[in-house]
From TrEMBL:
Name under which the protein is recorded: Vigilin
Gene (name only): hdlbpb
UniProt function note: Appears to play a role in cell sterol metabolism. It may function to protect cells from over-accumulation of cholesterol.
Record's keyword annotation contains Lipid metabolism: yes
GO CC aspect terms: cytoplasm; high-density lipoprotein particle; nucleus
Annotated stretches, region: Disordered: 45-64
SMART domains: KH
Source taxon at top rank: Eukaryota
Biological process per Gene Ontology, one example term: lipid transport
Keyword terms: Acetylation, Cholesterol metabolism, Cytoplasm, HDL, Lipid metabolism, Lipid transport, Nucleus, Phosphoprotein, Repeat, RNA-binding, Steroid metabolism, Sterol metabolism, Transport
GO MF, any single term: mRNA binding
Length: 1240
């Protein structure tokens, strides 16, 4: 749809004047790029509602007003990063592989802007950013923060003015950060600080500081005055190093804000008390009037490359000239081509200032030293040692190496440059004497083997021969390997590399077909088995495919003989594995599984050991009756017989065989075993076993209860008889090349025969030995009819005829190109028909077809169809930005192949533009709709029929990725990303999209989703669902964070915790809460904090209060028990005392070893329970003490009886603790006693 509007000459002139008046620069217009609405661009024509001839008044409608100029939506900004402010200064990596290029590529992907980098001669960076206004501003901010060194400064403004800097919803702050490319940190409202911190480049900080002071000045209730004075006189007002304006501020008390040199504004803002402001204005005007009256200017031409020396680091040289001569030096902008410098000052001081300008411009000398390019890195030295030594001695000299060129540039003060030149020349002469290099041409396919695993081979050669070896990267597709170093080492390294290459040329690669299920068995646990194989054949590399590929190919690589030996070894290993992996499944009635297992697994274990098989039974809750036996075939059969014997012994199980022709087995089993399963279920769960496929056996085994077995046999024989009637078979011989013609395109011919006769026709598969045999199956009459029809067709095909047809010569190439691919397809499809085209140069348009009559006619029709398609073929161009081509193609081109198959078209992608250089656009050059500049490398060509090309175009455009924004609260981002990115990675894989989450420092709520439209929509829905889940979790966490405090005497805390935390764990479990006791160092030792849901915390508090009230009713009673009885009361491992405590519901505490009162035992509990427990303990004490006395008396009596009739020559020692022990006391070490050995 198009619209046409007619402009009057007057309005058109106004429109042109509006465009001319608009300043077109590389920066951003002060009023942002304006995109008019449809009605503004094409307003309706005025309606004349007055009387005819009435000319009074102004014209009605929008056409009477001035038309606003249309501005471009695509802008270009150029800015520079000086050398001293560059973050990455390693120029050896400048370009595609450098950090700066990687950073710019990342920024382009994130912002959508186009960035171009270039390196100035002074090593500064020149950056050009092109794109929409918003994208350019975001890109510039990121470039400054990531490529330029950052400084920081603070600016103090009244606290009440901070909110005006932030703006509504933070919009003003964001705008200010984008505009100045800085990061501005404003203190929180509860922070009393007045300082606002600005981080960024020096230029950006100055701009941001100026803007913030302007905002503060506008909001300040004190006087604010703006003086518009010519920008060129600002340096005189500021003074050298800004000293004059600082003195003015101190003397008057007013605040004077002068825009920085990089900001092209004439306005100076003065704020403060009215009197101070008036005084400051008068002083500034006096300076301005004086300088305007007294000063004059002179212009000089100085090479652009020398301007930086006049400016000096951070503008110090300009300030120095101003301080010594009082002359202001005006430099052209860095992005300007002008070389004119203007000096402004009093006439008598311009001369000295000019002298200083020339002196500073010529204070630096540039010299070039010639050196072979391959020597550069040796001149630089390891980690820059050589050059570092020179630059340390001569810090003002800048040394630049140019890749691929035989020159080195030196720049700096004349004397130092000359010294550096001498030192570098000495290094070059020394290196040329003791260094050499050579190039070796080695096939690129051997390069990775030369390098070795993790660089093992190449590192060994480097260390052994003290050389450097440079192997080209894979994308370079070069076979040239360079060796540099000591001449002797170079030759030795060259010889070894050549030998390695020659050895690899003699290597052989062999593929073994090994079923994937055996791979893990060959590799072994933790790779133990394959390690043994590799140790046995160390020169052979054995590569297994990735499990995800589901490939059976195992690759061997190495010397021919070793590869053959390894292949035979592995083949034998695989044969053993295959022999041991035979598997049998036998159905055993479920009720007998436990008898087969036996008590404690005795039966099944015995069968496994004696037959050396693996036997797997179904789980107890499974409905399956199948027992699986794995191992050697004869062992599996032996195990099967033993298991079946157990079943026969346990029940009246009968086994019977029925003979059914093997060709009927598949039809009796049915799809997925449905028919045979129905018979088994109908006959009381009998088991029917068919012989394995290919065995040729006709015997079918039926096992089960006797009556049901006979019933199942009758049903099987009945089914077999029915299948026999419908399973008549006939065979027909036909040449393999006729098969495709008999089948027809899409099976149309053979389907017609099947529909007419009702017979089933089977053609041989490619791996069958009998390729000419066609099988016909069905009822006898149907088979005979189909056989007759096919024989007629084959007979016609055997009658060879020769025919010709006219094909224009311009179409011949299509049929014979690609080594006659189209002709081969015709021959395969139409019964081996031979198509002959005239030779090139005969200018004949007649082709010859030879073959069966029907095949020739069909081939002619097909050739005619192809010609019609070629004549109707068109080419359609589709514009898709080159960066999306890889996504459109898909992995290994699968998506584009699908389109070519579905729509029968050819799709051609353009050559890739590696430079990726888009023509720069100035503001106003592009239309408002322009998204990108169309380039040759963006155009994809589709060839085919018109209607199919259009459909293919739609399908192609549907594959172009789109990016959509999803608003997700910044607080939820880390939960969406997940631990180590697992959450975001899972979503990207599930929805086949790319999800970009902003950096934490940006604190942005926008998540970008990139991918195909359908996938993006699914991903957005999934992302929003995840957000809902996270929000629900947050709400739940908020509800669970309710806290209640309860004050409990610390002496009750151990009781509330319980033995090993049993009591408190039960409270936590019952009420789903967390209970926190105070730490030892806490001030409030009596406060217990309960957190969880509000209701649960209240219930937990009630439970603890109830427990505390019970504890408060308890009493403690001390009872003295003989220490000798303590061990028996406690019992083995405290069993006896625990039983006592449980019986009486009390707590009993015994004294610690070494206690002052060893007999005191403390009993705690309810009063009545304590009394009962004390009585019980006293009874136990009395019982144990009396038992101890009786034992001592018995021992003493026995000893006395032993010595009555003896003559004692030495009386016993009564103080001996071993011979006369005390009850409960420990024994002394054994000694020889006069009484002889002890009898107890």
């Amino acid at each position: 749809m198009s619209s046409v509007a007619v402009l009057t000459p007057e309005s058109f002139a106004e429109h042109l004047s509006g465009i001319k008046d608009q300043e077109m620069t590389g920066g951003v217009p002060e009023d942002e790029a304006y995109i008019p609405t449809y009605l503004e661009a094409f307003p309706p024509l005025p309606e004349n509602k007055g009387a005819p001839g009435d000319k009074s008044g102004e014209p009605a409608g929008a056409w009477g007003s001035k038309i606003r100029p249309i501005k471009a939506s695509v802008i270009t900004q150029v800015f520079n990063v000086p050398l001293e402010e560059r973050r990455y200064k390693d120029n050896s990596q400048f370009g595609d592989g450098g950090e700066e290029a990687k950073v710019c590529l990342d920024i382009m992907q994130r912002t959508g802007a186009h960035i171009e980098l270039s390196l100035a001669k002074d090593q500064g960076l020149s950056i050009m950013v092109t794109g929409k206004l918003d994208s350019v501003m975001k890109a510039r901010k990121e470039i400054v923060s990531r490529l330029q060194t950052q400084a920081s400064a603070t600016v103090a403004i009244p606290k009440e003015h901070h909110r005006f800097v932030i703006g509504k919803n933070g919009e003003k702050l964001q705008e200010l950060e984008l505009k100045t490319a800085t990061k501005i940190a404003i203190p929180r409202p509860d922070d009393p600080s007045l300082n606002i911190r600005i981080t960024g480049t020096k230029e950006g900080i100055e701009k941001a500081r100026h803007e913030i002071l302007l905002i503060s000045a506008e909001q300040d209730k004190r006087a604010v005055e703006r003086l518009s004075l010519e920008k060129v006189f600002h340096p005189f007002i500021a003074g050298a190093y800004n000293r004059l304006v600082q003195e003015l501020c101190q003397e008057t008390g007013a605040r004077v804000s002068i825009p920085p040199p990089s900001l092209h504004k004439d306005e100076i803002v003065i704020t403060g008390e009215k009197e101070a402001v008036a005084l400051a204005i008068s002083r500034i005007r006096a300076i301005y009037d004086e300088k305007k009256r007294k000063t004059t200017t002179i212009s000089v031409e100085v090479k652009k490359s020398q301007h930086k020396y006049i400016v000096g680091p951070k503008g110090n040289s300009l300030h120095e000239i101003m301080e010594t001569t009082g002359v202001s030096v005006e430099m052209p902008p860095l992005d300007s081509c002008s070389e004119t410098i203007i000096l402004r000052g009093e006439p008598d001081k311009l001369g000295p200032a000019l002298t200083q300008v020339y002196a500073k411009a010529k204070s630096v000398m540039v010299v070039e030293v010639t050196a072979p390019a391959w020597l550069h890195r040796f001149i630089i030295g390891k980690k820059g040692q050589n050059i570092g030594r020179i630059t340390q001695q001569l810090p003002k000299v800048h040394i630049e190496f140019t890749d691929g060129e035989e020159r080195i540039s030196l720049e700096g003060p004349t004397e130092e440059v000359e010294q550096a030149q001498v030192q570098i020349q000495d290094i070059i002469r020394d290196l040329l004497v003791r260094m050499d290099y050579t190039d070796v041409n080695i096939d690129q396919r051997f390069h990775r083997h030369l390098i070795g695993k993790n660089g093992a081979n190449i590192n060994r050669i480097k260390e052994q021969y003290k050389v450097s070896v440079w192997i080209p990267q894979e994308p370079d597709r070069s076979g040239l390997v360079r060796i540099e170093g000591d001449p002797k080492g170079v030759q030795l390294a060259r010889r070894e590399l050549m030998e390695m290459a020659q050895r690899m040329e003699n290597e052989r690669t062999k593929d073994l077909i090994v079923e994937q299920k055996f791979h893990r068995a060959i590799i072994g646990q933790k790779g133990e088995k394959i390690k043994e194989v590799r140790d046995k054949f160390p020169e052979v590399m054995i590569n297994f495919p990735d499990p995800a590929q589901k490939s059976d190919i195992v690759q061997l690589r190495g010397p021919k003989n070793e590869v053959e030996k390894c292949a035979k070894f592995l083949a034998k290993l695989i044969a053993d594995l295959m022999e041991n992996s035979f598997s049998l499944s036998i159905p055993i009635f479920k009720q007998f599984h436990k008898n087969i297992i036996g008590k404690g697994g005795a039966n099944i274990k015995k069968i496994r050991e004696e037959t050396t098989t693996k036997i797997d039974l179904p789980t107890e809750n499974s409905n399956s009756e199948m027992i699986v036996i794995t191992g050697r075939k004869n062992h599996c059969e032996a195990a099967r017989d033993r298991i079946l014997a157990i079943q026969r012994e346990l029940a009246n199980i009968k086994e019977s065989d029925v003979t059914i022709p093997a060709k009927l087995h598949n039809s009796l089993i049915g799809s997925k075993g449905c028919l045979v399963r129905a018979v088994m279920e109908d006959c009381g769960g009998v088991h029917i076993h068919f012989p394995s496929e290919g065995s040729g056996s006709d015997r079918v085994t039926v096992r089960g209860p006797a009556g049901e077995v006979e019933r199942a046999k009758r049903q099987l024989l009945q089914l077999a008889e029915e299948k026999q009637v419908n399973n008549f078979t006939a065979e027909l011989q036909a040449k393999p090349e006729y098969h495709k013609f008999l089948i027809g395109k899409g099976g149309v011919n053979i389907r017609g025969v099947r529909d007419r006769t009702g017979a089933r026709i089977i053609f041989p598969s490619p791996d069958e030995p009998e390729q000419e045999l066609i099988t016909i199956i069905g009822r006898e009459e149907a088979v005979r009819l189909a056989q007759k029809e096919l024989e007629t067709l084959v007979k016609n095909l055997d009658d060879v005829v020769e025919d010709s047809m006219v094909v224009e010569t311009r179409h011949h190439r299509y049929f014979v190109c690609r080594r006659g691919q189209v002709l081969r397809e015709l021959a395969e499809e139409y019964g081996g028909v031979a198509v002959s085209f005239p030779r090139t140069g005969t200018h004949s348009d007649r082709i010859t077809l030879k073959g069966a009559k029907d095949c020739v006619e069909a081939a002619k029709r097909r050739i005619q169809e192809i010609i019609e398609d070629l004549e109707a073929q068109v080419s359609v161009e589709v514009a898709v930005p080159q960066r999306y081509h890889r996504a459109v193609m898909g992995p290994k081109g699968v998506r584009i192949q699908q389109i070519t198959r579905d729509y029968e078209v050819q799709v051609k992608f353009p050559e890739r533009d590696d430079n990726n250089t888009e023509p720069p656009q100035e503001n106003g050059d592009a239309s408002p709709e322009a998204e990108f500049v169309l380039r040759k490398c963006d155009v994809i060509t589709i060839s085919g029929r018109t209607e199919k090309c259009e459909l293919a175009k739609i399908a192609l455009l549907a594959l172009v990725p789109v990016t959509e924004d999803v608003e997700v609260s910044f607080e939820l981002h880390r939960y969406i990303i997940g631990q180590k990115g697992s959450g975001i990675r899972k979503m990207m894989e599930e929805y086949e999209v790319n999800i970009w989450v902003p950096q934490p420092e940006q604190q942005s709520d926008v998540i970008k989703v990139t991918g195909q439209v359908a996938n993006v929509e699914r991903a957005k829905s999934g992302l929003l669902e995840r957000v809902k889940e996270l929000q629900a979790e947050q709400e739940d966490r908020a509800l669970r964070s309710f806290k209640v405090s309860i004050s409990v005497d610390p002496k009750f805390h151990p009781k509330i915790i319980g033995r090993k935390g049993a009591v408190i764990s039960q409270i936590r479990k019952d009420h789903d809460v967390n209970v926190q006791f105070p730490d030892k160092g806490d001030e409030l030792q009596d406060v217990i904090v309960i957190s969880g849901y509000e209701r649960n915390t209240e219930e937990a508090r009630s439970a603890i209060e109830l427990l505390v009230s019970t504890l408060q009713e308890m009493v403690s009673h001390d009872v003295h028990l003989d220490p000798r009885t303590h061990a028996r009361i406690i019992g083995a491992r405290g069993k006896a005392v625990r039983k006592t405590m449980e019986e009486f519901k009390v707590d009993i505490r015994f004294p610690q070893p070494g206690s002052e009162d060893p007999g005191r035992v403390t009993v705690t509990g309810l009063p009545e329970s304590v009394d009962n427990a004390v009585d019980h303990l006293l009874n136990l004490e009395e019982e144990y003490v009396s038992d101890g006395r009786e034992t001592i008396i018995s021992i003493w009596s026995k000893r006395c009886s032993d010595v009555v009739c003896c003559c004692v020559s030495q009386a016993p020692d009564m103080s001996n603790a071993e011979d006369f022990p005390t009850f409960g006391a420990g024994l002394a070490p054994k000694q020889t006693s006069a009484w002889g050995p002890k009898k107890f």
